[in-house]
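[Q] Does anyone have a clean structure-token version of this?
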Amino acid sequence: MYFLGLGLILLAMKYLEIDPVTAWSWWVVFAPFGMAVAWWSWADATGYTKKKAMELENKRKQDRIDKNKEAIGTARKKGGR
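[A] Here you go.
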């Protein structure tokens, strides 16, 4: 996501002719977009994206369980009995 943001900023700076990006080659300006594609390809191929999604889902599930236990009064208090 950071590569995409950087690419958009550099693209806008090149289009609006803001120094020093004006003097740079278009290849340099478009490089972050290529790096973003490479990152997303690697993340999908290695399962990194799926792993992070599952971790987030499990955390939300556990938070929901803990909240429900506290609501019905069966949750154990931290530091107490």
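[Q] Thanks! Anything notable?
[A] The longest helix spans residues 48-72.
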